[in-house]
Amino acid sequence: MNEPIPALVQELRQGYEEGATRELGRRVARLRALHDAIQAAEPRILAALRADLNKTEYEAYLSEVSSLLAEIRFVVKRMKRWSRPKRVRTPATHIGSRSYVYSEPYGVALIIAPWNYPFQLAIAPLIGAIAAGNCAVVKPSELTPATAAVIREVVEGCLNDGTVRVVLGGIETAQALLAERFDCIFYTGSTAVGRQVMEAAARHLTPVTLELGGKSPCIVHADAKLEVAAMRIAWAKFFNAGQTCVAPDYVYVHRSVREPFIEALVRAIETMHRKRIEQGEFTHIVNERHYDRLQRYLGQGKLLHGGEGNRDTLLLEPTLLGEVNLEDEVMQEEIFGPILPILVYDELGEAIREIARRPKPLALYLFAESADVQRQVLQRLSFGGGCVNDAMFHLATPYLPFGGVGDSGMGAYHGRASFEAFSHRKSVLRQSTAFDMPLRYPHHKRALSFL
Ligand code: NAD
After folding, report:
1. Is 145 exposed, middle or buried (0-12, 13-18, 19+ CB in 10 A)?
2. In terms of Cα–Cα distance, which of 154, 110, 115, 117 is closest to 422?
3. Residue 115 CA to ligand 1 centre (angstroms)
4. Tens-of-pLDDT digits for all 451 residues of the chain?
5. In a mutational test of the pocket of ligand 1, which residue from 152, 171, 175, 414 has the highest number of ligand atoms less than 8 Å from its CB?
6. Is residue 305 a contact partner of residue 261, using CB atoms and an 8 Å limit?
7. Is CB count within 10 Å lower at the N or C end of the chain?
8. DSSP for residue 255
9. Within 10 A of 328 (CB to CB), how many other CB atoms are there?
10. Alpha-carbon distance 349 to 40, whole Å?
């Protein structure tokens, strides 16, 4: 049971004001404790992910455990440097002064997480919140209840000083939290709910980071190395059964290589996934509602490969669709499942124009050898982040800020960007009192000349 939300937020605020989270040594100790607790709880985390989504050990460990442990180690090593006041230049007009930018914690942060990587997406922002010195409330997704329970157990077990609380519940709980005043909000989920979160934040003028979704395109140009493109796309698209915010949502392939590309993709799917499906080692769709939504998409194009599913086990196999209509749901909504529509283009500008007409995507992937094609796509299209000749790997490096733009979100995190997402940059000018500049005062006869 959760304690009443207003009281819980009040306790966190009091703790923050008493300085429970601000001292650097304590921040480091709390992150180390979190690291060790995640490591110790690994079997329980993997079991919960298996229960909620049938996540395989390979996928669960890679995307929800090892990535977090690596992120904590990365942050702990650098946060002392990031926390130092940063000296910046001062103009000559400010003679006698020095200028600094201080990173200060916002205060009490709210983190709302989705179900697709339920452990990772609740904890990764928390690492930034703790590193920056905040207290935090984490609200995991109600659609993955076993993982939500483990999140609470792990987090409140190792951070039992009341500086971080995990609140379990669904939409009503999220709304009750959003009614409170927080100092920053970090939301991961759909664009539609992101809008509501931002409206709620506006009531208190709370800064928000919104990590949202959308349809991330993948372009395969005529000169792409087809075998490697097919392997990388089949891996990225069907990882977690396509329930990944940055999964390639659809492919635009140059007409001249459509057939060999599809053949290579089918080979890649069979090599990588067939045996895993037969052994029950393929992630399931999260629930019946999403399974039924995906089934509807199957009727909106020509089946090129796959298409088999089982509503009882929620398994849906990797599926390729051709001849889709741009106005159909499958090309209007984020697919978020193992269905990949394949569209063709004759000339690069055609694909670029069609992508540019749509909301700005969270990710974009281009497979092309030509430097000119790469330059055109990177210059003409706006997207959160992406890869040239790869897919999804851009989010697995702590050196690249990860986030969306436009409908796919605002703000970014991972590595230093996480520390910054939870910090206010406070600008301070330190002036000397050893002398005073008479020119600045209005009664001086050359008052304007020093500017
Ligand atoms: P969702 O928006 O339905 O739910 C996410 C969280 O918001 C949950 O904790 C839920 O309880 C809460 N919530 C739901 N409705 C709410 C409401 N009306 N008011 C307040 N809170 C509410 O999203 P989801 O289905 O869990 O996740 C899928 C979406 O998230 C996809 O669009 C995907 O692309 C996106 N996503 C984005 C990222 C990213 O990093 N950008 C990562 C994962 C998922």
Report:
1. middle
2. 110
3. 7
4. 678 999 999 999 999 999 989 999 999 999 999 999 999 999 999 999 999 999 999 999 999 999 999 999 999 999 999 999 999 999 998 999 999 999 999 999 999 999 999 999 999 999 999 999 999 999 999 999 999 999 999 999 999 888 999 999 999 999 999 999 999 999 999 999 999 999 999 999 999 999 999 999 999 999 999 999 999 999 999 999 999 999 999 999 999 999 999 999 999 999 999 999 999 999 999 999 999 999 999 999 999 999 999 999 999 999 999 999 999 999 999 999 999 999 999 999 999 999 999 999 999 999 999 999 999 999 999 999 999 999 999 999 999 999 999 999 999 999 999 999 999 999 999 999 999 988 888 888 777 665 5
5. 171
6. no
7. N
8. G
9. 15
10. 52
Q: What does R_g of the chain's alpha carbons equal in angstroms?
A: 25
Catalytic residue among 59, 245, 317, 334: 245
Could you tell me the strand order of the sheet in which 97-105 lies?
86-88, 97-105, 423-431
Size (the chain), residues: 451
* Helix, coil or strand: residue 386: strand
Q: Which two tokens stand for residue 217?
A: 């395109």
Residue 44 in tokens: 């329980």
Residues 447 and 443: their CA atoms lie apart, in Å, by 7
Question: In this structure, what DSSP letter does residue 437 have?
Answer: -
Q: What does residue 231 show for φ and ψ, rounded to 5 degrees?
A: -60, -45
Question: Which amino acid does the sequence have at 383?
Answer: F
Report CA dihedral (418, 419, 425, 431) to the nearest 10 degrees.
-150
Query: Coil, strand or helix: which one is 307?
Result: coil
Among 333, 372, 327, 330, CA closest to 349 = 372
Which ranges in 118-251 belong to alpha helices (H)? 120-132, 145-158, 171-179, 191-204, 226-238
* Rounded Cα–Cα distance for residues 87 and 96 (Å): 14
354 is catalytic: no
Contact 123, 111 (CB under 8 A): no
